[in-house]
Amino acid sequence: MQVLTTAINEVKLIIPSVFEDERGYFFESWQQQRFAELVAPVTFVQDNQSLSKRGTLRGLHWQEAHPQDKLISVLSGTIFDVAVDIRPESPTYGKWVGETLSAENHRQLFIPKGFAHGFYVLSESAIVSYKCSDFYHPEDERSIRWDDPSLAIQWPIEGLPLLSAKDAMAPLFTPR
Asked: Is residue 173 part of a domain?
């Protein structure tokens, strides 16, 4: 696999080695030893999967007391995936990076602890899978409004996104 550093060094774009022939393709979507050597020594404890239709925006979420490293993959469709640095001591605090991930390009995004995460569905639907380094604690989840003007995320949105009630009511980013 190839590991590329994004505009925020700790967020990594992972491009697996894909072997294709007339039957289809094969690639390793997760290999702990190689991941530890090339990306970060992370132990994942939970896998999540979501199905979303075109125009859905999920995020921006994180857990406060139980932060999670995440490895994002797309099993079907295409998304624009975003990570926002919410670490007050970081030189990239309040900055964001976004990458297009799809079932066709097989790319993955590693988002370490200390980042809010969200994505927007560009295809008719998308199945997103992500590994997490800590368990989900609903009482610990926090969020930031997807359209916060201080973050100025350049979402590739057509019209108004489909949001959960919780995401529609999320607060603006408040620098610490």
From this structure: no
Q: Which of 31, 65, 90, 61 is nearest to 173 (CA)?
A: 61
Positive or negative: CA dihedral 34, 30, 16, 59: negative
Please pick, among 61, 66, 93, 106, the residue that the annotation labels catalytic. Answer: 61
* β-bridge partners, 108: 14
Indicate which CATH number applies to the domain containing 12.
2.60.120.10
Q: What is the pLDDT of residues 130-150, one digit of tens each?
A: 999 999 999 999 999 999 999
Report the domain count for the chain.
1
Q: Which of 66, 120, 130, 136 is catalytic?
A: 130
Beta bridge partners of 62: 142
Does the active-site annotation cover 117?
A: no
Can 130 be counted among the known catalytic residues? yes
Residue stretches of the chain with pLDDT short of 50? none
Q: What is the pLDDT of residue 158?
A: 80
Contact 108, 128 (CB under 8 A): no
Range of the domain at 117: 2-168
Question: What is the pLDDT, as a whole number, of residue 98?
Answer: 98
